[in-house]
From TrEMBL:
Molecular-function GO term, any one: ADP binding
Domain of life: Bacteria
SMART domains: TPR (SM00028)
Source organism per UniProt: Umezawaea endophytica
UniProt-recorded name of the protein: Tetratricopeptide repeat protein
PANTHER family named among the record's database cross-references: HTH-TYPE TRANSCRIPTIONAL REGULATOR RV0890C-RELATED, REGULATOR-RELATED
Organism phylogeny: Bacteria, Bacillati, Actinomycetota, Actinomycetes, Pseudonocardiales
Family annotation (InterPro entries): Apaf_helical, P-loop_NTPase, TPR-4, TPR-like_helical_dom_sf, TPR_rpt
SUPFAM superfamilies: P-loop containing nucleoside triphosphate hydrolases, TPR-like
Amino acid sequence: MANRGGTTSSTTGNAVSGQVAGSVVQAGSIGSVHLHEAVPVVVVPRQLPPATRGFAGRRFEVDHLGRWLDDDGSLCVVISGAGGVGKTTLALRWLHDVRDSFPDGQLYLDLDAFSSTGPVRSEEALECFLLALGVAADRVPPDLAGRTALFRSITAELSLVVLLDNATSAAQVRPLLPASPTCAAVVTSRWRLVGLGMEGARFLELEPMETDASLELLAKAVGETRLSDERGAARELTTLCGGLPLALSVVAARLSAHPRRSLSREAGDLRAEQDRFPGLELGADVSVEAVLDLSYRELTSGQAAVYRTCALHPGPEFGTEVVTDALGESSTTALAALVEANLLVEVDEHRFRYHDLLRLHALRKAEKETLAGERRELSSTMVRWYLDTLVAADALLRPTRRRVGPRFEAPADRTGLFGSQREALRWFDVERANLRQACVLSVDLGLDDLAWQFCEAMWSGFLHTRHYDDWFACHDVGVAASVRSVNRAAEAQLRLQLSFAFSELKRFDEASAQGTAALKIVEESGDRGTAAAVLNQLAGIAQAGGDLATALSLLHRVREIRQEVGTPRALAFCGRRIGQVLADQGHYPEAERELVAAVDAMTRLGDQVQQAWSLVALGKTYLRWGRAEQAAETLRPALEIMRLMGTPYYEAEVLTALGEVAVALGDLPAARRHYSGALERYVQVEEPKAIDLRARLDAVTEVPSQVARDSRT
């Protein structure tokens, strides 16, 4: 198949996101200067997990996949079969062999057909794919139809491959299929998913491996010499394992760990183990059950405890830290032993997950051998570890914000996990699925006070990552938990956070409803501080809707409250918001007074970051006022402050504003220089805004500077 990359077609649009408050000038063209905001430039994802070592057999299937790809030029194939038969192993081996045929990259997602919390929804999967393709989090559409359309638009001219593992249904898969004729999609499932035939899918049903292929797999693990010495026992092992690669790999790991153990003894032990379960109705999985029980009996008591406990973990993957918190430092060696025994998969350094059959087996062992009260305590310990670590991350991300939850009173020390804001955000993003499921599990455990604190502590992370599906799902749980707990302050805080999320998605009716409900609570309780925060949010909704008079009136109420019960910093922040609304109204002299006062106040308070943001707001006001030179003079010290702070993201924000000023001045070389500097810093911190900025940088065209100057008059 010929390698073919793709490009996306240009569109024109406007969007503002991130730390900027108030208004900015946006235009498709200014005189002869044209700024085109395109469909996001696609990055090249490389998401395929490593291919399994010791792959054996399946030559017929590999040949079929290759022929289908050669014949069709594109491919949608469903690999189906029983659990443990090697569907994912085959898919990964083949895709790694042909990955050079897909220069635009690979997407991978485990759809969790057998997760305790249910399969991944199509809209959740699409969010993951869109983010991987470089779409900024705040540009991901909120619904399935919008996400499907955007995914198809982006992939329409690309050449990439998608691996959808453990799919549940054709309906789950259908929106995740790329649109390009030069793409491939490989789906693994225990069901045939014949409904995908409408999409032209090919179907490959895996049977257990033949004896020769099973012997080949064993030989790669234990050595050909050892196998040939006991060829009869080796054949019996393949029969006892039912030709299932998962069972064979566990047996092979056990034999490798015991080089003096004979294959005859291993076959005898396994035969006896299977005889213990004559009534077990697991169908094709019966061989796996017996193999796993035999391996489980060889674990030390500590290793067995770790195996059982990890099955209670909320979420699909887990790190060493949460296990050691529950079971002690010795569990790290047990985790390594479980990986060696092929009872756990190490997906990254110090990060693990189960094969779905292994997790089910471990959970059964936990239910049989660990008392219900102990299981509950272990689950609660893991939930508390996630909450306390989340609280520590939130405190690092926004150290000055007011909190309601009691666990914020003495945040845990997590410097071993993250020592900077960037590391805290990285941890939040990696653990996002676990945090969501820990929030839900806390309710199942009857720990409502923890559930709503999860939501409060996720606030800073969500502000940065904008994962709205998780934001809404967790807050639905948290608000209900706060109501059951009769904690009105917590309910108000969570409704305020929900209001902000809705307003960011321009769902202003819902934002207003949540904000109004929060305001009613805090007015009844007399919580003036939170009332000011809610009024500030309602002012933002009014401002976004163009009702600037209401926004200004609400902000004046905020100022009155802040003058009574607020801090100088809160007052200065309110002044900045008022200045931005005044600028929206075109009252530039009044806006200037408010913003200059905010700059001065933040300077006196020593809050350099807020001083810089106030300077940015003032600089943008000067730009709209037609005073571009003064805007540049105002933004330069903001840039110096951000550089001293050593925060690339903040520096990039100011450089972007300076680029806009340079465009207005007609100094396009300077605009390119500022945009390039901002782009470099966005890339450094893996900020999705880099995609839009790259398009803006590419789209600025050379024109005589006087033409751009004239366009402002």
